[in-house]
Amino acid sequence: GDGGVEDTTGIFPAARVKRIMRKNPDKKKNFAKDTVHVVALATELFLQDMTKQCYQYTSERKRRTMMLHDVGWCLLIHFAFPIQELNAS
């Protein structure tokens, strides 16, 4: 498999996170177990926050069903950041 990486907590399996991380051609192919765990945890926390924000956005508009465009607007409003920040790393 993936070097014996096991996931003991969280919703994302560490082996799958590591496999996705390896797809980045600009980064090295070996990642420490702690690195994989932190990326998985950060992703989980981001999705929890995004879900909460999207629910709030939809509720404020007095709708009971969240639509794809609600998620898009929520991402633009709450999670947009300048592209320059991405290129700085």
Can you offer a commentary on this structure?
60% of the residues lie in helices and 0% in strands. It contains four helices and no strands. Helix 1 crosses helix 2 and helix 2 crosses helix 3.
Question: Radius of gyration in whole Å, from Cα?
Answer: 16 Å
Query: Treating each run of at least 4 consecutive H or I residues as one helix, how many helices?
Result: 4
**H and E string:** HHHH
Task: Tell me the fraction of residues in β-strands, as a range.
Answer: under 5%
Secondary-structure-derived class: mainly alpha
Q: How would the global form be characterised?
A: elongated
Helix content: 55-70%
How many beta-strand runs? 0
For the report, how would you describe the main beta sheet?
A: none
On the 0 to 100 scale, the average pLDDT is: 81
Distance between the termini: 30 Å
Task: Provide the descriptors you would attach to this structure in a database record.
mainly alpha; elongated; 89 residues; disordered N terminus
Could you give a quick summary of the protein structure above?
By secondary structure, this protein is mostly helical. It contains four helices and no strands. α1 crosses α2 and α2 packs across α3.
Q: Can you lay out the helices and strands and say which pair or pack?
A:
Blueprint: H1 14-22, H2 33-60, H3 68-78, H4 83-87
